[in-house]
């Protein structure tokens, strides 16, 4: 795309190793959703081989096509259970201008949402991410990175904008400081510094892998995130006060990642059992908030027993019928999402 002066805007921490086919099968989102949406927003056409060996040519790159159901969108995010994507026609856009990154220290989750609203009302954001103080401590200790500034904060917001908007971004920073929503902050002065600030967020998963984290990838409406996160944290802290919890995620689109770190002296079997109990409690909160048990990582094997927390019985029944139509013998990625 770059050779032709174009740009594919869907981006995530695994972009160096993941491929378009997998992105389509999981409807990958990642760090730019607030600006560019999910993978499905950029798929103009698909060729798919179904479980019966038939080739479907879906949408054929058309921008407007209301001739019946859009089967292309069914395949996107189906985790390979409906067929094999053998060809994809993707939309592209103009490359972004030079980008700058701000990292802001924020005293609490409600303040993060106020900062988000302030910046989003005034600017076109490329990304708005968050991570907790514990996440920052782990990354700085194990990835040879520096803290963004000396003042500690409970949470940190990472904002990416086009450099041309920097004057306005700094005025908004002053406004947030005066309102008490931000305790300190830093802005990148070079591409290298912007990359280093991004690593504070993107290196979290790799860093905490040494603690064998139990992961949950959950979402709700953006307006409900502070109360939602507070309830989840209260339940986990009450039931398992010995667990360290690392929070991070794409707060700009309502998606948070809950990572429970395994204590060194706790056997893996006991840790997994206790975390399963945690998940049950978390998913009950997710259901009450009308959220999703899997914001972007899919259902697969690990979450199929919990699908009913996000989908009604009727929805699951219709999903099974769609699966049967595409794959009557059940040979496409069998056992994923739900049992046949």
Folded structure, characterized:
The chain has eleven helices and ten strands. The protein has 340 residues and is an alpha+beta fold. A seven-stranded antiparallel sheet has the order 7-4-6-5-9-10-8, sandwiched between helices. α4 runs antiparallel to α6. The longest helix is centred in the C-terminal third of the chain and has 21 residues. It is globular, with a radius of gyration of 21 Å.
List keywords for this structure.
35% helix; 340 residues; alpha+beta; three-stranded antiparallel beta sheet; seven-stranded antiparallel beta sheet; globular
Q: What's the average pLDDT? A: 94
Measured between the Cα atoms of the first and last residue, the distance is 40 Å
Number of helical stretches of at least 4 residues = 11
Any low-confidence stretches, pLDDT <50, length ≥5? Answer: none
User: How would you classify the quaternary structure?
Assistant: single chain
Largest sheet: 7 strands, antiparallel
* Structural class category: alpha+beta
Strand content: 15-25%
Annotation, overall tally of beta strands: 10
Shape: globular
Helix content: 25-40%
Q: What spatial order of strands do you see in the largest sheet?
A: 7-4-6-5-9-10-8
- Radius of gyration in whole Å, from Cα? 21 Å
Order of helices and strands: HHEEHEEHEHEHEHHEHEEHH
